[in-house]
Specification:
Layout (H helix, E strand, L loop, with lengths): L15 H10 L4 H19 L2 E4 L1 H17 L10 E5 L27 H8 L3 E6 L11 E2 L3 E2 L15 H8 L5 E6 L5 H7 L2 E4 L18 E6 L2 H11 L29 E4 L10 H10 L1 H5 L3 E4 L8 H16 L4 H5 L3 H11 L3 H24 L2 E5 L30 H4 L4 E8 L5 E7 L5 H14 L15
Length: about 475
């Protein structure tokens, strides 16, 4: 059995589950934990730029209120006193939600919480601030003219991925225990893979959203955490109902921690190293392949099998680009002029898409989703790499501009499961020789969120992953 990472002593390194246990026993207070996290933010934020807004006064006030409730033995909900961040795509009362864009007026009243924010607040989470995003979350790296470049804690010269790159960088460094991300084509799983944390894209509709994403029904919200247990805890709160989202699944009141340690014995698991078409970096392929036998050790039946659906890139491109056109049509010509040129380019392509071409892509999406549902009649879970590469230079949309048109070209394993709306998670499965994280993707059937979490927890139990104690390397200009 592996010895595992060293036991942390700094409260900023504690998981949400550990914090709650310590609050319950009165061995630690929410004020102490929040103070430790804020100290870490002050120390590491200048290097990684994970936050576009930090509100220490509000966080400490919330922590003091939580401390009083714990002292009285009346905690508020499941997350009372746990330091938490919100991605700057998601509305948060009292703070501007600028979505990484100068086109948004910060002087608005900002009086509404999105469903995710509201549920966290209702359950006592201590909200620390807003994490960075590329403009409107349009690409799979994290930089914008508004908030600058966000960097990878494992190597500051590299990107943490995106679009939830700020949340991932904060999570990896213990700048908060719980983090809300969004995922329209891999925006939780890609940065989770690049930064060595756990990230879950739940089934579409599992976590209510309002307002709905302009990119449409490929967009999900989900937890980004340092442990699988924390993600299960967080999902139990995020999945609570909100009438503002008419796409939301019926709320089942499930506590996703129940059954989390039931393991994978007897499950039928498929492993697809390349989805039948994707080019994978040799070191990534090796680390992912080396991780797969862990599921056999845990009692599952694993065999190599592809869903056989081919390359979904053009189908996804139609959906994503039309969504970008939908997004930008609400801005004036003057506002659009200052928006990320890459976003303007894909929006122009989306605007040129005919209605019939778009409806054809919608039909193809349905066929692909149905094919995956048939695949899951034979297999409970599907394993793939999360991303075929490791983190590359910060400030670039793609590592090989001569061969890659857009970020979609280097993320072939993530966006298919946005089209199909299935739950999918990235779990760390090793470090390259250069010390960079690699992620293993676990995909479940639609509505199989608990099963994905269970498999990830089983893997974590025998393959614990390291996390950086501080940012590494030096940012390059």
């Amino acid at each position: 059995m592996p010895s595992g990472p060293p036991v942390p002593t700094d409260p900023a390194s504690f998981s949400a589950a550990e914090l709650l246990r310590l609050y319950r026993s009165k061995a630690l207070s929410p004020v102490e934990a929040t103070g430790a996290v804020l100290a870490r933010i002050e120390r590491f934020q200048p290097a990684v730029n994970a936050f576009c807004l930090v509100d220490p006064e509000a966080a400490l006030a919330a922590a003091r209120a939580a401390e009083t409730r714990w002292q009285r033995g009346t905690p508020q909900g499941l997350l009372d006193g746990v330091p938490t961040t919100i991605k700057d795509i998601i509305l948060t009362r009292g703070w501007p939600t600028l979505r990484g864009s100068r086109a948004i007026d910060p002087g608005q009243p900002w009086q509404e919480d999105a469903p995710a924010t509201a549920r966290l607040r209702e359950h006592g989470a201590v909200l620390l601030g807003k994490t960075t995003t590329p403009e409107f979350g349009w690409k799979a790296v994290t930089d914008s003219a508004l908030s600058g470049v966000t960097r990878n804690p494992w190597d500051l010269a590299l990107t943490p991925g995106g679009s939830s790159g700020g949340a991932a960088a904060a999570c990896a460094l213990g700048m908060g225990a719980l983090h809300v991300g969004t995922d329209g084509g891999g925006s939780i799983r890609i940065p989770a893979s690049f930064t060595g944390i756990f990230g879950l894209k739940p089934s579409f509709g599992r976590v209510p959203a309002a307002p709905l994403s302009p990119f449409g029904t490929v967009a999900h919200l989900g937890p980004m955490t340092r442990t699988v247990t924390d993600a299960a805890l967080m999902l139990s709160v995020l999945a609570l109902p909100d009438a503002r989202d008419w796409f939301a699944l019926p709320a089942d009141g499930r506590d996703y921690r129940i059954g989390l340690d039931d393991g994978v014995r007897g499950l039928r698991i498929a492993f697809s190293p390349d989805l039948g078409h994707a080019a994978v970096a040799p070191e990534v392929a090796r680390l992912v392949a080396d991780a797969v036998p862990a599921f056999e050790e845990l009692g599952a039946r694993v065999e190599e099998a592809d869903p056989g659906c081919g390359d979904w890139a053009e189908v996804f491109r139609r959906h994503w680009y039309v969504g970008a056109a939908n997004l930008l049509r609400g801005f004036s010509a003057e506002q659009r002029a200052g928006i990320d040129p890459g976003l303007q380019e894909i929006a122009a392509e989306g605007a040129a898409c005919s209605l019939m071409d778009y409806l054809t892509a919608v039909g193809q999406r349905g066929e692909l989703g149905a094919a995956l549902r048939r695949f899951h009649e034979s297999y409970d879970l599907l394993l793939t790499p999360s991303v075929p590469i490791v983190a590359f230079a910060a400030g670039q949309e793609r590592p090989d501009p001569k061969r890659q048109r857009r970020w979609i070209d280097w993320a072939p394993f993530s966006f298919p499961f946005n089209l199909s709306q299935q739950p999918a998670a990235s779990v760390p499965c090793g470090l390259t020789a250069a010390g960079l994280p690699v992620g293993l993707q676990i995909v479940g059937p639609m509505h199989g969120d608990a099963l994905v979490l269970r498999a990830a927890r089983a893997f974590e139990s025998i393959r614990p992953w390291p996390l950086p104690e501080a940012p590494r390397g030096q940012a390059l200009a």
